Amino acid sequence: MLISDTFVIVGAGLAGAKAAETLRTEGFEGRVILVGDEPERPYERPPLSKGYLRGEVPRDKAYVHHEAFYEEHDIELLTGSAVTGIDTAASEVVLPGDQRLRFDRLLLTTGAAPRRLTVPGADLDDVHVLRNLRDADALRERLEAGGTAVVVGAGWIGAEVAASARQKGLDVTVVAPASVPLERVMGPQVGAIYRDLHLDHGVTFALGTGVDAFEGHNRVEAVRTSDGRMIGCDIAIVGVGVRPNTALAERACLAVDNGVVVDEQLRSSVPTVFAAGDVANAYHPLYGRHVRVEHWANALHQGPAAARSMLGAGKPYARVPYFYSDQYELGMEYSGLAQGSDEVVFRGDPASREFIAFWLHEGAVAAAMNANVWDVTDALQALIRSGVQVDRARLADPHVALVDLPTEVVS
Ligand SMILES: Cc1cc2nc3c(=O)[nH]c(=O)nc-3n(C[C@H](O)[C@H](O)[C@H](O)COP(=O)(O)OP(=O)(O)OC[C@H]3O[C@@H](n4cnc5c(N)ncnc54)[C@H](O)[C@@H]3O)c2cc1C
Question: Residues 12-22, buried b or exposed e (16+ Cβ, 10 A)?
Fold first, then answer.
């Protein structure tokens, strides 16, 4: 790479910030420009539904780097600047006012945005979503005021916000079409463990139904469910998933399909343009197909991987998908992809909330979750990566070391 080269990164979240850092640690001496539309320097989002939301973790802990980092590493950080276009023919990104930045390599780390409900009343005051620090600040203020909350959606954001709201003493009802929380990712068995956890902490569920409307005069006062219930509330939080921010890529005619389509080195259909993090639908060698992962660890590792690819030193990105969640006293880590699995095996008693769940697909471990059990991620990921058939009894037996399992083929 030439010292005169300019690498532009659009999206100043975790993936973008780690990519910029990696360009410098890998010795790139050209210009690095990191452009973000938020007013903040890059920060991590997980605290926004947990400690930060509850007022237990200071704002400073959320930032990816200390304030002087970008200047110290000669990274030009443009905050509050929404990129409006990409001109791939001219190798330029367009900023408001038609200001143009020429690039030799471009990385898109534009993340994802919350899906909105289009039902009547969705724009009433105190109907919240949670994606950024501004959202978290607004919600945090409302949680401090107490009262009654309806959480719409029982995925990760919904479940974590419900837990935080209960911990702040609000009365909480979760409304969702699923039969148990987290059903889409975890399936009914493990989802039921989370349902019981929330019930034990006083959450009320309205499951198997959706939302028809938010009712109220200016502010939300109630949620009307599709099965005819009217649930009064002072605040509603909508957590019904996210959409990848692909508008720029689409307008630039990059291949887009559930995210910016990239190869295993995170290169898009335009060879000078790369993508990483929530926005990237990357070919995954382990699965032999494209996978888009909406989790912290993916942004943490894909940003650097994309940076190395931009420098011509890329390797296939083949990490096992990983995420974590904390709700009340239950902390967990999850590796792999459970969708399509046909069986769940437990090691330890799920009722004790200290266990490992294994999702099997045709006898091999497709995914695993360690709940209040720690330092097992490497062993679980080795098991998933191995793809070998496992002996269910030994998988369930806590006396069999996890590290001994990957090579155990059932005869
Ligand atoms: C509340 C919350 C809690 C979470 N908790 C967990 C957790 O416990 N565990 C876990 O594994 N994951 C968690 N996640 C998911 C994790 O935070 C995301 O996977 C991660 O933030 C993705 O990072 P990213 O850099 O790809 O995208 P983002 O963090 O979304 O950053 C993208 C940035 O690009 C900006 N941008 C978009 N378009 C433009 C444009 N045109 N011009 C300039 N800038 C633009 C966006 O505004 C944003 O600042 C959580 C997410 C949220 C919202």
Answer: bbbbbbbbbbb
Please tell me the residue having the least CA distance from ligand 1 atom 30: 111
pLDDT in tens, 16-54: 999 999 999 999 999 999 999 999 999 999 999 999 999
Pick the range with the lowest mean pLDDT from 88-92, 133-137, 182-186, 372-376.
Answer: 182-186
Residue (of 337, 370, 409, 343) closest to 185 by Cα position: 337
| Single-letter amino acid code for the residue at 192 | A
Q: Whose C-alpha lies nearest to ligand 1, atom 27?
A: 111
| Cα-to-centroid distance, 299 and ligand 1 (Å) | 8
Mean pLDDT of the chain: 96
Q: Is 43 in the pocket of ligand 1 (CB under 6 A)?
A: no
Report how far ligand 1's centroid is from the alpha carbon of 346 (Å).
32
Model pLDDT for residues 239-278, shown as the tens digit of each residue: 999 999 999 999 999 999 999 999 999 999 999 999 999 9
Q: Does the beta carbon of 282 lie inside 6 Å of ligand 1?
A: no
332 to each of 38, 39, 262, 369, 376, how far by Cα in Å? 30, 32, 30, 7, 11
pLDDT at residue 4 greater than cutoff 90: no
Report yes or no: 306 and 286 within 8 Å, Cβ to Cβ.
no
CA distance 150 to 233: 6
In short, whether 293's Cβ falls inside 6 Å of ligand 1 is no
Q: Is 45 in the pocket of ligand 1 (CB under 6 A)?
A: yes
Q: Positive or negative, the Cα torsion across 219, 154, 173, 143? A: negative
Q: What's the CA-to-centroid distance between 160 and ligand 1, angstroms?
A: 16
Task: Give the atom of ligand 1 at the shortest distance from the alpha carbon of 49.
Answer: 1
Q: Find where tokens 């959706």 sit.
A: 210
Q: Ligand 1 centre and the CA of 236: distance in Å?
A: 22
Judge if the beta carbon of residue 114 lies within 6 A of ligand 1. Answer: no
Residue 410 clears pLDDT 50, i.e. is over it: no
pTM of the model: 0.97
Q: Is the dihedral of CA 129, 245, 95, 64 positive or negative?
A: positive
Q: Give residue 407's pLDDT.
A: 52
DSSP secondary structure code for residue 188 in this structure: H
**Cβ(112) – ligand 1 distance below 6 Å:** yes
